Amino acid sequence: MKRNKLKENQLKVLEHLAQFESLDYISCLRILDNEKTNDRTKLSYVFRPLTKNNYVKKYKDDSVRILSKGKALFPDITPLITIGGGDSSAKRINTVSRVAMYLKEVSINSYSEIREDEKIYFIPSACWRKIRTGILSTTRFAGMLMMPGHRLAAYDIGNGTMEWQLRAERSLFYKNYSDFETSATGMLLICCEDKRTDVALQIIRETMWQRKQLLGNAVNQRDKPVKYVKSPIRLAAQYEHVYLTTPDRLKTSIIKIAEEERYIAKVQNENPKCSYKSEGDYEDWPYRHFVNITSDLLKYVYYFAAARLLMQSREAGRVELNYAIALPEDDFPILNMYPDIIDMEGMKFYECRDN
User: Fold this and answer.
1) Which residues are registered as beta bridge partners of 242?
2) Which of 57, 83, 109 is the last residue of a domain?
3) 77: containing domain
4) Which of 194, 100, 197, 202 is nearest to 141 (CA)?
5) For the residues of 95-140, what is the DSSP string, one character each?
């Protein structure tokens, strides 16, 4: 079976595998699904010629790896990832490959190094470790999404039940003099389509339970391995921004992230900016406003934490301060997780709309 006999979507699968060596089977079917039918039975028949003609091999763990015959169709592509031994290594490579696939769907290419000729692009984690020093070996990030003004550590968190190593992930954000320009400025969490709200509630709740420890700005930078601790995903102030999205929302999310500062500045108008992120985006006394067009989970934590503190202050005496928050309609269920905050006197809520 020659290249000119392969369908365009089959060649897309092979091209991706030539760059990333491996990908899980379901994701391969996603690439093949040009018409977005999600008909796995039909798509499996389109996939079958790739294994039958020895372009790829499908393994028992549902990994699909490219073979020499498949690589030969793309002689100009140098793999960005090298497959190591062990199940955990294979699983991690598939995760990185899957994130790169999602980004490719919205026309974002992957490279091994920092580029001057691209505005938005992706650098896989294995390549980023060669650029950025001091990353602890236990970090789970898939790679760095490079955007004007942003360096976002990208994660595929699925249904949100992954093992999270809070201190290790912080190493991506260390700001030493030698690597300030390679420190992450935020996170991009990609979760399952139908679990988005559940994942958001889960992460916010876990963070709120320990907010006094997690929202402090003090953190010791270290380049030695830290003690391994299995825990749910929790956020820390050092992450700066934690944007939640899904594969199908990815394009919209990236556009909103790019427009976030402009949008906030427009609604802020002439009002002064708040001194700290934990206080809000701007102040129009007696209100402090949080503006969250990007589904930034850390901003929601700041908002809930500020509201809790306001409750305590009101119990101690009269306080004029109030809070307002603007958010997308899809995020309204997040506010319902704390009914006492929703019902606080003076609280205001607005829907963010394209401006």
Assistant:
1) 187
2) 83
3) 1-83
4) 100
5) HHHHHHHHHHHTT--B-SS--SS-SSEEEEHHHHHHHSS---TT--
What is the SS3 assignment for 27? helix
The residue-averaged pLDDT of 237-257 equals 96
Which of 115, 109, 120, 106 lies closest to 150 in space, CA to CA?
Answer: 120
What is the percent of the chain with per-residue pLDDT over 70, rounded to a whole number? Answer: 90
Identify the CA nearest to 349 among candidates 292, 283, 264. Answer: 292
pLDDT for residue 3: 64
Contact predicate 5/65, CB 8 Å: no
Structure tokens of 14? 């092979």
Cβ neighbours of 3 (radius 10 Å): 12
Task: Say which amino acid occupies 197.
Answer: T
pLDDT score at 87: 67
Residue 201's Cα: distance from chain center in Å?
Answer: 16
Among positive and negative, which fits the CA dihedral 102, 105, 108, 111? positive
Cα–chain center distance at 303: 20
In a domain, 269, yes or no: yes
Phi, psi of 22 (to 5 degrees): -145, 155
Q: pLDDT digit string (tens) for 47-105?
A: 999 999 999 999 999 999 999 999 999 999 999 988 876 667 788 999 999 999 999 99
Last residue of a domain, one of 29, 54, 83: 83
| Angstrom distance (rounded) from CA 110 to CA 107 | 10
CA distances from 260 to 191, 265, 314 (A): 21, 9, 32
Give kind and range of the element (H or E) at residue 34. Answer: none
Q: Answer yes or no: pTM beyond 0.85.
A: yes
